[in-house]
Amino acid sequence: MPSRSPVSRRQVLAAGGTGLLAATASSTRAAARTRKARAGGGDGTPEQIHLTWGENPATDVVVSWASPGPATRPRVRIGQRVILAEPRQYTDGINGEAVWTYHARVGGLRPGATYVYVATADNDSNAADPFTATFRTAPRGRAAFRFTSFGDLATPNTAWVLSYGQSAYAVDAVESFQPLFHLLNGDLCYADLNPTVQPEVWRDFGSNNQTSAGCRPWMPCLGNHEVEFDNGPQGFSSYLARYTLPDNHVPGFGGLWYSFRIGSALFVSLDADDVVYQDAGAFVAGPAALTPVAGTGHPAIEPGTSFYIRGYSGGAQTAWLERTLAAGRGDPSVDWIIVQMHQCGCSSSATGNGSDLGIRQQWLPLFDRYQVDLVLNGHDHDYERSFPVRGADVDAGHEAATDAVVNTLRPHPVTTTDSGVFDTSQGTVHLILGCGGTDAPLDEYGTDAADGQRQAKVFTRANRPVPTDTPGVYTRAAADAVEDAIWSARRDTSTGYGIAVFDVHPDPEDFGGQTSITVTQYHAVGADPVNPATGAKGAPTPDYTEFETFILVRPRRA
Ligand SMILES: [Fe+2]
């Protein structure tokens, strides 16, 4: 296993102080008091340090971090260069805590080069031995590279809802594969499920990720659990404060979706909250209201309230997507188009969310038209792979309650032979990778009792909150339709935890002049707290072993 980049151990410990497995609610409260005291003194010590690609990954990287209090002259140092960081501050709309983040845009770098950087400030309590790490820029041209992906990570601090110790091992797993970068495909830390302590949950998330995200870009997308009450028009203030992402040039929607190029691959990162029918953002189930602290000026949020943002961009995201895909497919230096988004067009988890007709209506036709090769999703906490799909079978679904026929626009597999090598110029492969680290594995999958076929749940309409039999308590229903999931090729029933590793080979010799991507899913067997399929009890584990390998091929462009 390759060694880690040289992050100072003292700095890792200082930054990761609340990310311990044994953390408790009382220790968390004590930590919060300590932080408030430090903030009063203006503690500008960098923490939660992470990298993202700038506009051109071959030459531009952004170093981002937070500090307990406002930083004085926050900056990154690379060799003799000093890059001042831009401040970005927000106040949590529920608990009223101020959060200070900083972003240093480092440009003018050499492609495929390794750099050592320092992140510090005048009021950095570690100024004598400031945070130091290395990163590597992307190669220029048609070069080979590796990336990794999972979603639904959470934090290792089990005081928080949905957090679990596997989250720490998942970060270690990224480092063990030494990718050029990591795609974190949504539902980052579930702060919305811990609404009175959202900044603390984000802090544990950032501290946990730092050992990897401080050394290589982690490129995120928004999931339903990034939607937080009273934090901006879509609830994304926490996310937007922490991440600086490539510019989509769509006024009013910066940072919500973006694209970047590496070698012969175009990466497109979307916010599916904009198109899905499912209502799965911030929610007050009751019977108690959620009452923001007085200083925020926000009124109590009554039981039965959900923050439902479908359609928020008014079509701007889909128009941007079409422009981006058209430009990508029209560019002879692009072979691969790889999309990440959180929610799923092709998921057959029985215990999870399932698929969403909104994605199938608005985006799958564009993926067909522009030959998107690969779609990476999270949302369901498991691993599932589709056959290549193109077009849709009509009227293939049934309403769950009445069995009436429903048009779920079921994705049509171009083959149902699981050969291990798939030409994605003929169809798009969808991967469900919600296997990061939450404590709620969803690795139990649907079966049609009538014919034994694989079965998927599909949201075809909004599941807005409805009253339960308990006065003052509300719920949101599961998906309203089902279909035989003839597009489903492989499902991991042994664990809900894993990491996908992608090796892009622009000029392979094995596939007759075609370019290829080798995909290997590694899984952490035994990590499920309780395996939903078997009932077996497990515990977090550092052991990631191979589940399957398959190869994507497509004709090489010019
Ligand atoms: Fe999700």
The poorly predicted ranges are 1-34
Total count of strands: 34
Number of helices: 8
- The coarse overall form would be globular
Strand order of the main beta sheet, please? 11-10-9-32-33-34-24
In percent terms, what proportion of residues is strand? Answer: 25-35%
What is the radius of gyration? 22 Å
Q: How many strands, what sense, and barrel or not for the largest sheet?
A: 7 strands, mixed
State the end-to-end distance.
36 Å
Bound molecules: fe (ii) ion
Mean of residue pLDDT values: 93
The chain-level structural class is alpha+beta
Question: Which percent bin holds the helix content?
Answer: 10-25%
Description:
The strands form 8 sheets. Strands 11-10-9-32-33-34-24 form a 7-stranded mixed β-sheet. Residues 1-34 have low confidence and may be disordered. It is built from 8 helices and 34 strands. It has 558 residues and is of the alpha+beta class.
Could you write a compact summary of the structure shown?
Helix content is 15%, strand content 29%. A seven-stranded mixed sheet has the order 11-10-9-32-33-34-24.
Name the descriptors.
single chain, 558 residues, alpha+beta, 7-stranded mixed beta sheet, 8 helices, 34 strands, binds fe (ii) ion
Please outline the helices and strands:
Elements: H1 9-15, H2 25-40, E1 47-53, E2 61-67, E3 75-78, E4 81-84, E5 86-91, E6 98-106, E7 114-120, E8 131-136, E9 145-150, H3 166-177, E10 181-184, H4 198-213, E11 218-220, H5 237-242, E12 258-262, E13 265-269, E14 283-284, E15 305-306, H6 316-329, E16 336-340, E17 355-356, H7 357-362, H8 364-369, E18 374-377, E19 383-386, E20 389-393, E21 397-399, E22 405-406, E23 410-413, E24 421-423, E25 429-433, E26 446-447, E27 454-459, E28 466-467, E29 474-475, E30 481-484, E31 488-491, E32 498-505, E33 514-523, E34 545-555
Parallel strand pairs: 9-10, 10-11, 13-16, 16-18, 17-27, 18-25, 24-34
Antiparallel strand pairs: 1-2, 2-6, 3-4, 3-7, 5-6, 7-8, 9-32, 12-13, 14-15, 19-25, 19-31, 20-23, 21-22, 21-30, 26-27, 27-30, 28-29, 32-33, 33-34
The structure holds fe (ii) ion (FE2).
Fe (ii) ion (FE2) is lined by residues 187, 223-225, 342, 379.
